[in-house]
Amino acid sequence: MIAAAKTRTFTVALVGNPNTGKSTLFSGLVGVHQHVGNYPGVTVEKKTGRTSFAGLRFEVIDLPGLYSLAPRSRDEMVVVDLLLGRQRGAAVVDAVVCIVDACNLERNFYLVSQVLELGLPVVLALNMLDVAERRGIRIDAARLRRQLGVPVVPIQANRRIGLPQLKAVLADTAAGAVGDIVESAGKTHPLQRMGLSSGVPLNILPDRCLHCGATGRPEDCGEDAAGTAAMAPDAARVHSTPLPDEFEAEVALLESELAEESNRAAGGPLPRCLVRRLLLDTNGYLQRTLLDDSDGRWASRLAAARERLAAAGSPTPAVETSARYDWARRVLEGVVVEPGHYKTTPSDRIDRVLTHRFFGTLIFAAVMLIVFQSVFVWARPAMEWIETLTGAAGGWVEAHVVEGALRSLMVDGVIGGVGAVLMFLPQILVLFAFLALLEDCGYMARTAYLMDRMMARVGLSGKSFIPLLSSFACAVPGIMATRVIENERDRLTTILVAPLLTCSARLPIYAMLIAAFIPAHSYLGGLLNLQGLTLAGLYLLGIVTAMIFATVFKRTLLRGETPLFVMELPGYKWPSPRTVFMRMAERGWMFLRCAGTLILLVSILVWAALYFPHDPNATHQEQQRNSYLGQAGQVIEPVVRPLGWDWRIGCAVIASLPARELVVATMGVMYHLEDKPGPGDRRWSEKLRQATWDGTDRPVYNVPVALSIMVFFALCAQCAATLAVIRRETNSWRWPAFTFSYMTALAYAAAFVTYQVGTWVAG
Amino acid sequence: MKHTPPAEVIPLWNLSEGSCARIARVLGPSDHVHRLDEFGLRGGTKIEMFRPGNPCIVRLSGNKVCLRTDGLLEVLVEPM
User: Fold this and answer.
1) pLDDT single digits (tens) A564-616
2) ipTM, interface predicted TM-score of the complex
3) B1 touches chain A (CB under 8 A)
4) What is the distance between the alpha carbons of residues A76 and A276, in angstroms, rounded to a whole number?
5) One domain for residues A193 and A227
6) If you measure CA to CA, which chain A residue comes closest to B31?
7) Domain check: are A214 and A254 in the same one?
8) H-helix or E-strand containing A569?
9) How close B68 gets to chain A, by Cα (Å)?
10) Which residue of B has its CA nearest to A563?
């Protein structure tokens, strides 16, 4: 048995409500050996880590925080499929660690009851006992073990207290699982299959069977307390539910009908807990997903079954909540002693200020100011350092590689393209560090509360606020953060408007054009400055447009009522540097991988379009004019002329299709600057001012042209990484195509109006 | 402390700061009601108003939750 256990890797899934310390426990179990990915076709983060203890190898899966295992969307379905071993490409789960918050046992036990029904070995990690004690809640863990019938391990995940015990129980569970396979599958007591057969170090052997022990129906279970084999595992699983008998009878009937028809898309019989969910899911998601119901036969059968249940006094879906909470109350009887009155905690005192309508909003504004200031100020040295490094790398290649296509590709295509992305990494890391800090200490949930009122006005909820906030640094992480929004339409609306917010990639363009064309007039004794006001105006333009379009989308394309907003506000705590660092590194790496690979590819394409067809004798300017990109620029010149642009600006816009920030570099190449221009570089400003329309001495640039370019870049979707991440998050090309179209049309129209009105005002 | 007759049922938004109540009923589309049920906001649950308004913050078995109830949902409570 031990030999068999040592040769395989055991898969353990971590399940729990949000804010129960699940991710902290995950980090505590696996340390730095984490891997974040995605399940194919959905946005559920696949967070796994490998670890070994007691001589056994484990793969731990951190599932997203859930209140219920009732799948209402494809993302939620993945979690259920994974736990049931139905998820393609994922290992079969050997055991589940269910983490619960000791302050909230009854609510947490709703999910526990659903997890127990899956028929997998379960270990309960009882977290935050210390917090519960401070709040005056007393918990009898030994009694809980007895009444629940699965191992219960008290832990303090943030201080790593209890983790060795949890690991010991897991190791024993794993050994028990192999024992089952080696001995005889199905011939052991279910409790034995839960890894409680031998050597459990914590005196956690339960003395009653799961659910039945507490309900006092041992005769139903067919198991005796000594744990001798009497029943096949599947049969034992059938009884692992607190749902009433009349409901289970309907489930059995439906199960046999399904087996007869066997018209399901996937092979193999449907697990019983999914048959239960079919009956409970009045929304119809599971019916559409699991059944081939072209003739509506199953719909009517399910409706009839639900009617019978309603007549018998067990209406769906309410029967589930009442049965599970009743079960939770029975299991927790005598386990939890709650105080008559809750003490005012330090968290309450902090919340009196931070959620105050006036002071809370004021503090929130100050926090946002500090975050943005830091993003720009703290990241600057690192950005300059990266710029120097990419410059040096380019110089090294130029010195060591013979002049020609290869050198040009390496310097302009690869190093230039990747450098453009790397430049923004420091800002993104600083922002992520702040977001992780605010999230870990518990403040983030309060910002969603504070902003909900405003978000509700445009048809969204406070949950859309955090993704939109991240979009001010970069839309890519912002769009990834929309995963917290349960409602699909709201999530999509947030994704569609997120790229309108001013990300850091727009700053180099703004900085360059503002420095060159906007006069530095001061007002109010130097307090306000026209250049600063222009920048603020461009930020405001993004915010206002995003709000307008969110309202428009929610009223037309993605019509739906303002979403339900219900959210837990976790207690405040000191942020853990480890968690903050891990989250920052994880997000930073995801950004690099997503944005970096794509931008590398597209910048090589842009380079090729500027380099070919190559004429070694041509001057720099002739080469540009005759290159594929130059030709394209001249073709689109009639289109961009109403915006006040010449073909070179048109070229720069095309070349910046992969990433807005490339426009600065492309314009540098276009106007033939030897060195790359830096924003605010005087010589660069001079060059732009001197640029003239071909064959005339009429200057290309003036204030309306500069404004029209800035407005265009404020509203356009010139970012391949954003479009790629929209494609990934929505699992369709339709939405990135739509985003690109509507934003480009909007940007063009706004730039047109800006130029025409600007020229009229100036002229 | 002011005692109110147990039969009185008021909407959640009418509950004043610091008062305790028991949820009498949650009214609204069954899916939303079920979601709140699963979340732990259900008939019979004791809550305490921490910050009134919409969204409001209530204390639910020691923890705090914020909830917006406009148009979609009506949470009726019995003040205690």
Assistant:
1) 888 889 888 888 888 888 888 877 887 777 667 777 777 788 788 888 888 88
2) 0.91
3) no
4) 16
5) yes
6) A283
7) no
8) strand A565-569
9) 5
10) B72
